[in-house]
Amino acid sequence: MHAGPLRALSELVGVEGTRDGIRIAPRLPSETFRVRWPRLAIRSSPAAVEGEIGMAAPFALEVLVPSGLAGRALAVTVNDERVAATLADGIVRFAVPGGRAAWRVAGG
Questions:
Q1: 22-58 pLDDT, tens per residue?
Q2: Which of 26, 57, 80, 108 is most buried by its number of CB atoms within 10 A?
Q3: Which sequence spans correspond to the domains of the chain?
Q4: What pTM was computed for the model?
Q5: Spelled out in words, what is the top-level CATH class assigned to the domain 4-107?
């Protein structure tokens, strides 16, 4: 199987490595989508973005805030526990533990 289509999908969904983690900043024409890879799943709508991820070690996750949450208080959860997060330039950043983790960014 050629990696080209998978790489293109990854770029459209906006998944990229950062110095200390992963950034998800979708470039799709719609904010409503669902993508699943073996170690990463993302579900997005204008009101929330969430997913699951499996990493060997703790890391920082950066997620572009959907338009429906712009200017609103955010609730960020990892494994159903509210976590501290920072917001800058429309990107919310929070810590994710190693192993399999479910995360969610929604209105708070």
A1: 999 999 889 999 999 999 999 999 999 999 999 999 9
A2: 26
A3: 4-107
A4: 0.91
A5: mainly beta
